[in-house]
Design brief:
Largest sheet: 7 strands, mixed
Shape: globular
CATH class of one domain: Alpha Beta
Number of helices: 10
Order of helices and strands: HHHEHEHEEHEHEEHEHHE
CATH architecture of one domain: 3-Layer(aba) Sandwich
Helix content: 25-40%
Strand order of the largest sheet: 3-2-1-4-5-9-8
Radius of gyration: 17 Å
């Protein structure tokens, strides 16, 4: 959904730790039901190390100067990234599969905000070339098949427009599991988040780096940047136990792609 990740305390860092601690819960039918834990997820996302001091600052830094840009946040969740982009002068639109998350986003952004319920596996409700930038923040790892979604992102972008993506880092996704999965295969995994005392069943897909870059290329994108950023230094005092682990390791990987 994006946010997936996004978001709970750490979109994937938390997932990795949960897997390592043996709390995986395969086979649940209620996975990724953001309507059922929207408030808990949104509250966690607002101030967490991995979202508020790592993923969002990194995405905003990659976006750079956005004043006047028409930006689609694909998987906008409760809208924290949308709000930050709008504060920087962007003309923002958000889509998410969770109606409850969009209610929270509308509460944040106002009644006239351009927000739409949409499943990223389906065609987007926008004309060709409608946006200068598309941001997919911690959302693609919810999808088994990236090709239809990337094709839609390419369609709604103007020629030369940007797609800014953050996803779970493949190194983490494939190494913190026992038994270790085949790195060259796209595989699924399930686990449980605990968000402010509420359990949430999650289901993600992991894929190797070459599968990610190959999917971008097939969809008509040129890779401009691959980034493995550091967290905001301001988080060091706020999260002394976790900051060093994140700043010396990895959690997400970021791409800036140009539409051909």
């Amino acid at each position: 959904m994006d946010r997936m990740s996004p978001e709970p305390e750490d979109r994937f860092g938390m997932a990795a730790r949960l897997e390592a601690e043996g709390t995986r819960t395969a086979g649940r039918t209620t996975a990724n039901d953001y309507d059922s834990f929207a408030e808990a997820y949104s509250a966690e996302n607002e101030t967490s190390l991995y979202n508020a001091y790592y993923e969002r600052p990194a995405t905003l830094a990659l976006a750079g100067e956005v004043a006047g840009h028409r930006i689609l946040d694909a998987g906008c969740g409760a809208g924290p990234l949308l709000a930050a982009l709008r504060d920087r002068g962007a003309i923002v639109t958000g889509v998410d599969s969770s109606a409850r998350m969009l209610e929270l986003a509308r509460r944040r952004l106002g009644a006239d905000a351009s927000l739409h319920v949409a499943d990223l596996r389906d065609p987007l409700p926008f004309p060709d070339g409608a946006f200068d930038d598309v941001v997919a923040s911690l959302v693609l790892h919810y999808l088994k098949d990236w090709e239809p979604t990337l094709a839609e992102f390419r369609r709604v972008l103007r020629p030369g427009g940007r797609l800014i993506v953050s996803v779970d880092h493949p190194f983490v996704a494939y190494t913190l599991t026992d038994p270790r999965p085949d790195y060259h295969a796209t595989t699924s995994y399930s686990f449980e988040w605990t968000l402010r005392g509420q359990a949430a069943q999650m289901h993600f897909w992991r894929r190797p780096l070459h599968a990610m870059t190959g999917a971008f290329t097939v969809a008509g994108f040129r890779i401009a940047t691959i980034s493995e950023p550091q967290p905001d230094p301001a988080a060091r005092e706020l999260f002394p136990d976790d900051f060093d682990h994140l700043s010396t390791g990895m959690s997400f990987i970021f791409f800036v792609l140009r539409a051909g």
